[in-house]
Amino acid sequence: MIQRAASPSFLGLDDRTAVVTGGGSGIGRAIALAFAAAGAQVAVLDRNREGALDTAAAIEQAGGRALALACDVSDAASVSAAAEASLDTLGPCDILVNNAGIIRPGALETLPAADWNAALAVNLGGCFLCSQTFAHQMRPKGRGALVHIASISAENATAGAGAYSVAKAGIVMLSQQLAVEWGAQGIRSNVVSPGMTLTPLTQARYEMPGRTERMSQAIPAGRIGRPQDIAEAVLFLASDRSAYINGQQLVVDGGFTRMLMSLLPRGDY
Questions:
Q1: Is 269 a catalytic residue?
Q2: 257 in any annotated domain
Q3: Do the domain assignments include residue 255?
Q4: Does residue 193 contact residue 171 with C-beta atoms inside 8 Å?
Q5: Whole-prediction pTM
Q6: How many structural domains is the chain composed of?
Q7: Tell me: the pLDDT tens digits for 98-110?
Q8: Does residue 265 belong to any structural domain of this protein?
């Protein structure tokens, strides 16, 4: 009988170090928990330290290893301090998930410049600062994975969203440029773009009577997305299973953005 060696986990994330920004709640928390369940140790970064601590505690209660760090991704000094603390405790970063984001809604006609700048600084600038900083820990290994959380708003203008769609579109191009510049160093860069997803940040809109049912009808999958749906896509792009995927965008929306023609009234068929 042939003796087969014990095979590694499918994703091969055991003992790797993942850094998740905005990991204190919502999609970020789901991503952090998913990495821990896959065997990775996780640095949870969030401007809300209490949220980061709650996520880290959940990971540790499940038998994983985590570090909670307060971090403002729009501030270079804050990002550098978090990177040093993560390195000291968990070792070099193998995976960075740029998930932190904010919404400063408003019509462009009257949107304050401060709200525009804040949205760009966190959503887009934070991706740049964190990628630049944590990539320094990846280069000596000759490998690394960057996964940036954008949105279907990156390719679908959203009226009244301020700089949100603009920032998310910028993330997609930033990821492509990182892939081109850093690919030869073994560092891959890809994007996950969620569609409608139920999180603490968006819950209020779905609690309006009948709204969830109406919105679900516009999605081929028949339901609103869950944070875990996004986390599964992130794990794939962070793993060696996607080793030859670089500079790409994976849309996770249940098919919603393919429904345009089906939403039009038709009488011929």
A1: no
A2: no
A3: no
A4: no
A5: 0.94
A6: 1
A7: 999 999 999 999 9
A8: no
Domain assignment of residue 256, yes or no:
no
Which domain does 219 fall in, by range? Answer: 17-248
Q: What is the CATH number of the domain that holds 157?
A: 3.40.50.720
Cα 168 from Cα 125, distance rounded (Å): 11
In tens, the pLDDT along 138-179 reads: 999 999 999 999 999 999 999 999 999 999 999 999 999 999
What tokens does 116 get? 């525009």
Please state, in angstroms and rounded to a whole number, the distance separating the CA atoms of residues 66 and 226. 23
Q: Which two tokens stand for residue 48?
A: 């809300």
Which of 164, 206, 244, 269 is the catalytic position? 164
